[in-house]
Amino acid sequence: MSLVDCPAVQAVTAAAPLLRVEHLTMRFGGLVAVNDLSLSAAAGQITAVIGPNGAGKTTLFNCLTGFYRPSAGQLWLQRDGQPIPLHRLHRHQFAARAGIARTFQNIRLFGQLSVLENVLVGLHRPLMRASLGCVAGMLRLKSFRRAYADGLMTAVQLLEEVDLLADAARPAEELSYGAQRRLEIARALATNPRLLCLDEPAAGLNPSEGKALASYLRALPTRRQLGILLIEHDMGLVMGISDQVIVLDHGQKIAEGTPAAVQQNPAVIKAYLGEAV
Amino acid sequence: MPTAVFASIPNGFVLLGFWLVYLLPSSPLFQRVDGVHAVGCFWIMSLTLLYFCQQLLNGLTLGAVYALVAIGYTMVYGILGMINFAHGDIYMIGAFLGVLTLGVLTALGITAPWLVLPVMLVMACLITAGYGSAIERLAYRPLRGAPRLAPLITAIGVSIFLQNAVQQLQGARVQTLQPLFTSNLVLWQQPVAGQPDFTLAIGHSQLLIWGATLFCLACLSWLINRSSVGRAQRAVAQDLKMAAILGVPTDRVIGTTFVLGSALAAVAGVLVMIHYGVVDFMIGFNASLKAFAAAVLGGIGSLSGAVVGGLIIGLVEALWAGYLPGEYKDMAAFSLLILVLLVRPSGLFGRPEVSKV
Amino acid sequence: MAMACKSWLLRVIGWPLLLTLLASPFLLLQMGANGLVYRWYAPLWLLAALVGGQLLSIALQRLHVALSDTKLWRGNRLRRLSPMAKGWGQRLGGMALILLLLALPFLPGVGRYPIDLATSVLIYVLLGLGLTIVVGWAGLLDLGYVAFYALGAYGYALANQLWGLSFWWGLPFSALIAAVAALLVGLPVLRLRGDYLAIVTLGFAEMVRLVLINWQSVTGGPAGLGGIARPSLFGISFSNSPNAGQIAFHEWLGVEFSTLQRIVFLYLIILLLVGMVYGALRRLRRLPLGLAWEAVREDEVAAVSLGLNVTRLRLAAYMVGASLAGIAGCFFAARQGFISPESFTFNESVLVLAVVVLGGLGSQAGVVLAAMLLVLLPELLRDLADYRLLLFGAAIVWVMVKRPGGLIRQPRPDLLAAAQGRVGEEAS
For residues A235 and A245, what is the distance between their CA atoms, to the nearest angstrom? Predict the structure, then answer.
């Protein structure tokens, strides 16, 4: 049932994890939000990061996606057989060089842009390259027209996957909350990421939407050959779809393993799950 | 060991010490004249140094005014995250209200400075505070939650409106006034061969500016740090949404901020009018630029930063006016602003911004 | 009911009274050269005007509500809400406007004045289109836009005097100068928060003005620069006594010399420029670059997370906007033949900003309409000319607070409908 059981995937995972975080520390003044944290996430898997509020999950995400520069430690992403040092990249290079895309805890869409345009912004880099800055685009060269049509097709497919094609021409701000969450995921996928970081994707969804999201996410890693890093408070979702769960508390890793194993872990129960599950 | 001690002293200080001990006394700034004027003073000041001191005094005066205006900028930015362009014009309105009050009082035959001054300050503060509050209510409050650009554009609209309204109602003419305070406090008098003596003096109006600025700053710091209004203000500046959730009446706090900032700007306006004796409807424009530069220099959002920034901008401008081509003195503040943005965008006292994701 | 009554009273009596009170020191008293002047009547006028205005706006509101209840109006509104619909009325109006603009100089009975006026309007349209990229698309407030206009004008004037640069080479030259200046100003600022740009540009414009006034040896100081070469058409000059190697237009055509010929020629040049820029921007808006600008405006953080280089994009928008101002400046210099710092004051920046804001931030058609309105109205109502800036300021505030969409809200381009045909075409 789970991908972890598949021997091929296991072999790949053992060879080189998609993401390696080594001794990451993030300080804000005197506050240590993440303290000497090491973890790894595998390609083709869903890795969930859980922990009580203030455990450092979002800080970890912000370091991984370039919004914070770590105080210490190294972040490596495996791409095309080459490790890329994330801690040396500039903010905007995380999506392009490393292939990391993210969604946000409090949804951040381009409100006045249409749904389709939101996804097209995710395709900015290939489209920009095709339009040669904007020369080819201004002249409407054939090469650009073809690339643009391809881009549109990709965007349409992505929208179809998240069931938003009917709303393609509407401004994003008009969508319902759940639809906005889905659009954000589609937009992140448009950058063709290797690692997709989802920051509480189920927050604010109703049960049926949550269920649909779970099955969508479950299928995503194999279909798009990417790894998913997931922060989520909805334990049902986390335990249902994750291959690996990492538990943080006070900026440190206190447990790691399959959902079942983590649920049995006394440290986790003590820190967090005790009252929740 | 001694080498280690020396190495720990920053190079700049070593150089400064060397300059003070060896170079300065032998430089043309000081002339050794066997004690004629100075009792107990070994070195006699040269004219160059006197001139420099005079510029410093002017700079401090100017700086005090900029500081008062900059506080309004920095408070509003700290809370709403918007540049309130109209603030410079609030300052201009304060100055004009001072002029009009002075006119009325003169017409009534009241000319005693000790009576005129407080009346002018109170009138200007009260009415200008009303302006600040009304502007906030009518132009900015409806835009809370709108895209960042919207209040910025509105602010520039308000600024243009106020400027031109005053121009239409009071005329484009530069208003010149009889100085209220003419006497000086002479610090140093030095005879110059074949010319009138060079006097280093502080005008009473300058003393007034410093005194009033210090008083206002003391009141403000008490208000911000000790009173409940100040506590609410600091809370709103930290996190508007959270403060609102916890029951802080954010709208009222923001209104208070505008009232406070406007009153301070009015004080600055009246003081400037008294000291320089000239006012026109455009003074808000330059003051805007310079006070904003001061706020950014000090670290936007930081009150003490605004004061220090204002003083620095004032000093730099006065020294620029004294030693560099005077026509370009308005460029001083701007050049400093660009420099700060290049070297230390968070300013002297500001903390680097951590984006909230 | 009591609440409603109270709020109504506040609106009709309270606010006007308060505002009148605040304004009354300035209304009652004026500090004249010979002491105070009293104007007892003035506050009453203001009060009456404000109360009247409020009553009028309430009446209009009621009317609007009443009308929107009727069926016809509702249908209309639905259509307006649908993003696909671009009203035929708008399209027809645009077409008529283009035809009118093209035919204007050849209409019988049209003299020098209307063409001159139309040329002025078109200059502001060009400036407005440039600023709309910066403010409307990229979401950066530029309060010193006039600086680039001035740089373009002086750039061409000086290059013309020093190296004899012709107008047609002057256009790209001015655009380049303005773009380089924008790069230098934007670089230190744009990597920071976007809103610092507003005040820095304000300072920059002031600095440019100071230099223009004080650097006498180069810029001619307050007296300005004169004798700037007019545009020629492939070596055909429109002056009475052309330079060596040039043919005079009236001789070439064999008609009598008239300054009207030059004015019409200038008008056609700016019409061509504006037309080209308008078309180019329409296309640009749908390109990845234009889309990225808008994305950066909407949410900078999200844009970065998608791999957009926000600093570079903003810089690009700022430079493109500036270069359009440079082109407008070059044309302005060539049209006047004489420039001085007086033409490049802060008020010009205000006018262009008002054009952009009133046009509805980012709407190209709105820019055209607003430029026509803002340039023509003060010209037609001379009595109002003194109050021009006052009204612009009020209008900017009013639009931002009450009607952020401006005069014409540009619909989002419907990419899918446009693409459906194209995708099929490519696939086959």
Answer: 11
What residues contact residue B243 under an 8 Å CB cut-off, 6+ apart?
Answer: B232, B235, B236, B250, B253
Choose among B82, B165, B289: nearest Cβ to C203: B289
Helix (H, G, I), strand (E, B) or coil at A79: strand
Say if residues A244 and A47 touch (Cβ distance below 8 Å).
yes
Q: How many CB atoms lie within 10 A of CB B186?
A: 11
Strand A227-231 versus strand A46-50 pairing type? parallel
Interatomic CA distance for residues B123 and C269, integer angstroms: 56
- Nearest CA to A35 out of A25, A20, A45, A21 is that of A25
Helix (H, G, I), strand (E, B) or coil at C423: helix
The CATH number of the structural domain formed by C104-408 is: 1.10.3470
pLDDT (tens digit per residue) in A62-121: 888 888 888 888 888 888 778 888 778 787 788 777 888 899 888 899 988 888 899 999
User: Strand C236-237 and strand B278-279: pairing?
Assistant: unpaired
pLDDT band at B41 (very low <50, low <70, confident <90, very high): very low
Q: What is the ipTM of this complex?
A: 0.85
d(CA C72, CA B266): 54
Enumerate long-range contacts of B321-327, CB under 8 Å, 24 or more apart: B321/B55, B321/B58, B322/B51, B322/B52, B322/B54, B322/B55, B322/B58, B323/B55, B325/C214, B327/C210, B327/C213, B327/C214
Taking CB atoms and an 8 Å cutoff, what residues of chain B touch C204?
334
DSSP string for residues in C335-395: HHS-B-GGGGSHHHHHHHHHHHHHT-TT-HHHHHHHHHHHHHHHHH-GGGGGGHHHHHHHH
> pLDDT (tens digit, 9 = 90+) per residue, B156-207?
999 999 999 998 888 888 888 877 777 777 777 777 667 777 777 788 888 8
Q: Look at residue A255 and tell me whether its pLDDT is greater than 60.
A: yes
Q: Which of C36, C188, C203 sits opposite B103 (nearest CB)?
A: C36
The alpha carbon of residue A184 and the mean position of all alpha carbons in its chain are separated, in whole angstroms, by 10
Q: Could you write out the DSSP letters of every residue in B66-126?
A: HHHHHHHHHHHHHHH----TTHHHHHHHHHHHHHHHHHHHHHTT---HHHHHHHHHHHHHH
> Do A153 and C423 contact (CB within 8 A), yes or no?
yes
Q: Would you call C135 an interface residue with chain B, using a CB distance cutoff of 8 Å?
A: yes
Task: Locate C111 and state its tokens.
Answer: 């003299």
* Alpha carbon of residue B4 to chain centroid: 42
Quick one: residue B300, left, alpha or beta (phi over 0 = left, psi -120 to 50 = alpha)?
beta
Token representation of residue A210: 């949550």
CA distance A148 to chain B (A): 30
Which single residue is written with the structure tokens 């609030």?
B90
Question: Residue A186's CB: how many other CB atoms inside 10 A?
Answer: 23
Indicate the pTM of the whole model: 0.83
What is the CA angle C187-B290-C134, rounded to 5? 35
**Domain A1-99+196-277: CATH superfamily, name plus number:** P-loop containing nucleotide triphosphate hydrolases (3.40.50.300)
Is A108-192 a domain of CATH 3.40.50.2000? no
| Chain B residues whose beta carbon lies within 8 Å of the beta carbon of residue A104 | 357
Q: Does A258 touch chain B (CB under 8 A)?
A: no
Least CB-CB distance to C400: which of B148, B157, B338? B157
Phi, then psi, of C201 in degrees rounded to 5: -65, -35
Q: Rounded to whole angstroms, how far apart are CA atoms A58 and A48?
A: 12
Cα C321 from Cα C126, distance rounded (Å): 10
Q: Is C298 helix (H, G, I), strand (E, B) or coil?
A: helix
Residue A87 DSSP symbol: G
**Which residues belong to CATH 3.40.50.300 in chain A?**
1-99+196-277, 108-192
Q: Per the CB < 8 Å rule, is B357 touching A104?
A: yes
